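User: Sequence in, structure out. Go.
Assistant: Echoing your sequence, followed by the structure tokens.
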Amino acid sequence: MDETKVESQELQTVAPEAIAEATADVKQTIWNNPALYSMAVKQVIAWTEMSMLDTMAMTLADEFGFGAERLKRFHDAFEEKYGEIRKLEREDSDDNEYAIAKQEEALQRAYGRYYTPREERYQIKIIDREGREHRL
């Protein structure tokens, strides 16, 4: 099994004993237990990847007439490309500057005149517990 599929499976798997240990003390939450927080982040990443893949597959089928064979080819290509991006991010320096630049170059080629700069695409905001808005 290649490294990409192994990582994806690891992200989707949470050790039951880790959850049992962390939740045995009801005061343990993802906010005060780094191990629980790390597991939660990995689950969110895996869930987001799967949600993106599902949405793209439904769109390709509904809007572009992709059948089962083309969707399977797309799924496999998506998994491979996603793995390449994650590997590039892991191997990059702490700021991911190189990985981001490579992704943006590829997106500029792919979208051509319809390309939207990263600064516009990633205007993601969150609201913290105190109601303050933060930009990611």
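User: And one key feature?
Assistant: The mean pLDDT is 83.
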